[in-house]
Write a structure and sequence with these properties.
The complex is a heterodimer of chains A (267) and B (346). Chain A is an alpha/beta fold and 267 residues long. Chain A has eleven helices and eight strands. Chain A has an eight-stranded mixed β-sheet with strand order 1-2-4-3-5-6-7-8, sandwiched between helices. Chain A is globular. Chain B is built from twelve helices and 13 strands. In chain B, the strands form three sheets. An eight-stranded parallel barrel of chain B has the order 1-2-3-5-8-9-10-13, surrounded by five helices. Chain B starts with 6 loop residues before the first strand and ends in a 7-residue tail after the last helix. At the A-B interface, loops of A face helix 5 of B.
Chain lengths: 267, 346
């Protein structure tokens, strides 16, 4: 257990180094490192080094950061990798974490051995004149307003009705809901930032081999967004998990883990 | 295999480390004379390499040297193993390589690789992280330029529209690609006319990558940069040139050739460098066995080249090994390849 001081606050992380590569797992909006525990156990058993951490405002990281932008979260991740001297990092981000790892990868350059987007909100979460996928930017503001009006029930609805397409059981849903409840309202602005975030220029900066995993029934980050990312990245493998929703690593962990490990072994 | 023709060649870096026993002028002059002499001994190829901003003067301008070699030799192939394509302007490189092909009657081969030294990328204004796209788009530009059609590319690093790049050579240089990482070797199999190997690393990876891409083994081409030290008395040779060998390998380690700088340890002494590095100490019998075995195992290999001399070693000292190889090693290897006679394992 350790903390890295950044920008006047502390980022909590868990680092288990093994071998040349380190898989860095960046969680989704308002979640925490714990949500990756099944993936972490699998990678550890496969002999792969793993780093997990809590975003600003989430989990065991400090809650009272003023800046919770995607750029700030990306900077935290890059500084964490530099702090730990990771020379061959495989950055894997889920949902909003997908945008965080893209931002961090552009900062880290040749220290990134691979990039994984797990239903990542990149290159855009919302549509615009020349990007046809995702919701309208104003929908994000409405979502944040609904969250702030009644966060306990909003988050319960999100995990009991929104995230999963396959039946994962109520315990998994309840567990996710409880992790989400650890998040500070200060982190709501991270979600709000996705309304206008555009990473298309950043994707052109990233030459590292990529794996893009999409859920065929994902209604949070629709599969078209991941397909667009895979097309724009220099060298990306696209994995379509047809019957999964927004969290394939929890909905079909065996298939997800196998695809992830195969990608890692090829780096 | 019956008519198999393998070129044997020499590899030059033109390094002249302190304390310099000779001027750069004298080193370049002596090396050119040695190359002419090597051609008369029966060596078939000469290979040049590129680095920048090195205290010992490591050759930064191999194409200028290639032109000088071309004018002094008649038969030898002249190649680069290798030039750093991500640092180059690929159009300018295409022009220079085309000019060399014209000047040498089609004897020039362009070998390229990614590079790895931060200092070089900083000065030339390129990012290490952009190496894959700089390489892949650079290769596309070179190919188009030599085809005689205007160059057009809309890539991540280059945007060129209908640019007529001339002169168009009658014989386009063969485009070889080097590398040690699996992903670089896979790229060589996908985009190159052949693979430049270093110290035997990656022959198997290349063969597998060609197979995975559905290409027959007969289309595979490997030019093998070989780090063997071949001499009549290998132990005495190691004692004589150990300091130069240690210097060579430890500089590559420090620059990051074999992994991130600082993560790969330096060799403590020449014995450790030879035991743990890429080098093999061989007399004629062992060298014949080593080369024939490698060439039979990998019919893709069309060229094997050896360091002419190690950094700081006098040119005359390298000439002694060359003469020994030309007299006692290469004819036996060629004969064995010709008639398929079994060769005893060393």
């Amino acid at each position: 257990m350790a903390y890295l001081s950044v920008d006047g606050g502390r980022i909590y992380f868990e680092h288990c180094p093994v071998g040349r590569l380190t898989v860095v797992l960046s969680h989704g909006w308002g979640m925490g490192a714990r949500v990756w525990d099944g993936t972490v156990a699998f990678l550890q058993d496969a002999g792969v080094g793993v780093l997990t951490y809590d975003h600003r405002g989430c989990g065991a990281s400090d809650k009272d950061f003023r800046d919770v932008s995607i750029e700030a979260l990306g900077s935290d991740l890059a500084r964490l990798c530099e702090h730990l001297n990771l020379s061959a990092a495989v950055l894997n981000g889920w949902s909003l974490g997908g945008a965080v790892v893209v931002n961090a990868a552009a900062r880290l350059g040749s220290a990134v051995a691979g990039l994984v987007s797990t239903c990542g909100a990149t290159p855009r979460f919302t549509r615009c004149a020349d990007f046809a996928h995702g919701g309208a930017p104003e929908d994000v503001a409405a979502t944040v307003a609904a969250l702030r009006a009644d966060r306990v029930n909003f988050l319960k609805t999100l995990y009991f009705q929104g995230v999963f397409a396959r039946d994962v059981g109520d315990d998994i849903k309840h567990w996710c809901w409880q992790i989400a409840l650890q998040t500070s309202p200060a982190a709501d602005a991270s979600l709000g930032a996705l309304a206008t975030l555009d990473q298309r220029a950043l994707l052109d900066e990233i030459d590292a081999p990529a794996l893009v995993v999409v859920g065929g029934r994902d209604t949070v980050v629709t599969p078209e967004i991941g397909r667009a990312a895979a097309t724009q990245l220099r060298s990306a493998e696209l994995i379509e998990m047809a019957d999964c929703g927004h969290a394939p690593f929890l909905e079909d962990p065996a298939s997800y883990n196998a695809a992830l490990l195969r990608f890692i072994r090829g780096l | 295999m019956q008519h198999r023709n393998v070129n044997f060649g020499l590899w030059y870096d033109f390094r002249n480390p302190a304390p310099r026993a000779v001027t750069f002028e004298a080193l370049y002059r002596a090396s050119l004379e040695q190359i002419v002499w090597a051609e008369s001994l029966g060596f078939d190829s000469v290979w040049l390499t590129e680095h920048h901003f090195c205290d010992d003067g490591y050759a930064p301008s191999p194409l200028v040297i290639a032109a000088a070699i071309g004018e002094r030799t008649k038969r030898m192939r002249i190649g680069t193993n290798l030039m750093l394509l991500p640092l180059a302007d690929p159009v300018r490189l295409a022009e220079d390589a085309a000019t060399l092909s014209i000047l040498t009657g089609g004897r020039f081969d362009l070998g390229v690789g990614l590079g790895y030294r931060q200092l070089e990328f900083d000065y030339f204004g390129r990012k290490l992280a952009h190496r894959p796209s700089l390489m892949e788009e650079g290769v596309a530009i070179l190919r188009q330029a030599w085809s005689g059609k205007p160059v057009t590319i809309a890539g991540r690093r280059y945007a060129i529209k209908e640019l007529p790049v001339t002169p168009v050579p009658s014989v386009a240089p063969r485009l070889f690609m080097g590398g040690m990482a699996p992903v670089a070797i896979e790229r060589a199999a996908r985009l190159g006319d052949g693979f430049l190997s270093t110290g035997g690393i990656g022959h198997d990876v290349y063969v597998n990558a060609m197979k995975a891409q559905g290409k027959p083994r007969s289309e595979g081409v490997i030019c093998a940069g070989n780090w063997s030290i071949i001499a009549a008395d290998p132990e005495a040779e190691a004692a004589k040139i150990g300091a130069h060998v240690l210097y060579q390998v430890n500089q590559y380690v420090a620059w990051g050739a074999f992994g991130p700088p600082g993560e790969v340890p330096q060799f403590a002494d020449a014995r450790a460098a030879i035991a743990g590095g890429l080098y093999e100490l061989l007399d004629a019998d062992a060298a014949v066995a080593h080369l024939v075995k490698m060439l039979r195992e990998y019919p893709e290999i069309v060229d094997v080249h050896f360091w002419a001399q190690f950094p700081g070693e006098p040119v005359a000292s390298g000439s002694i090994r060359m003469e020994y190889m030309a007299r006692d090693v290469l004819p036996r290897v060629r004969a064995a390849l010709r008639d398929q006679t079994p060769v005893e394992e060393a």
